[in-house]
């Protein structure tokens, strides 16, 4: 049996596999539609009797090649791309939830995800219970209800940088017969594969490290194929009972371990349409080809910056899982021994006003609503990405009012530190 490729090779070689005489580089299939010779051929596609392409809102060859690469990096059985990371998390949950259902949600997830699940989906009749990821197993289990359909958490929380105990959450989810969905955006599959530790579904905002250049918004969902939906047909009727919109197809019967992604593609993408453009997927693939090179450098630079900040007299605290003083250091060593991410959070002794002043004085680091690309950037979440939260919710999310989110780029680490030094010296 052929040995599977390592991640470095997958980044370069997976996805697009050209045949004789075809382009070596992944083509951009910039077309809304695809031609067929007979009506019967087209009809079989609409009945899900054959694989193929007929309308880009559902599937596109460029998109699928990139999804295949991400799937292979994560070690899944099937994957799909979405137009944003937010759409990926929405589809991942909504694919198995409907009005009257319930979600267990980690309190420290990204603010946009928190608002999506706790507020917007509440209007759709889907409720949620919020759990502290640091709670013990028994406390987390108390959040589950009879109508709970999934658990959603992040490998490394944005921006709290809480490292998830994946095995603990997977054990709790499986004890209550539901899948664990993990957003693996910050760690990337280079540093962590949640499936290895019991997660069932992984999501990504490909906008971040996967793209790596702040060019394209996008998302991805990967299914491990390990959760057996057929054991709980009453809990997951969408997958285990006939879909009358496709002539009574039962996804688990017809598509086996690929049932979850097939349903999300043929049903949710058909009706909601958050498909990425082929051009964006092409650019995402360019980013993926260097993911294995960029992520280690982000982590190396971030480690140096975190150590510098930890020793600075004007810095009140530093949160980075790579520091031995960090409360999540041991968990990070377990799940991500080769590094965590390039994002640091820290606070200044001058509090919130000092944080805002520092950002205005930085020269190399730019104030942008983004993280995880080649350029160093900075943000004050309480004023920006998390400003929709009240003080209590901010506390639950691990976002202190003075928290500065600092995304360390690929520049020379000494230059990044020098920029921080000159800014700190003027506060």
TrEMBL record:
Its cofactor is pyridoxal 5'-phosphate. Signal peptide: none annotated. One of its GO terms (molecular function) is O-acetylhomoserine aminocarboxypropyltransferase activity. GO terms for cellular component: cytoplasm. The modification N6-(pyridoxal phosphate)lysine is found at residue 208. Keywords: Pyridoxal phosphate, Transferase. One of its GO terms (biological process) is transsulfuration. Belongs to the trans-sulfuration enzymes family. PANTHER family: HOMOCYSTEINE/CYSTEINE SYNTHASE (PTHR43797), O-ACETYLHOMOSERINE SULFHYDRYLASE (PTHR43797:SF3). This is O-acetylhomoserine aminocarboxypropyltransferase/cysteine synthase. It comes from Candidatus Eisenbergiella merdipullorum.
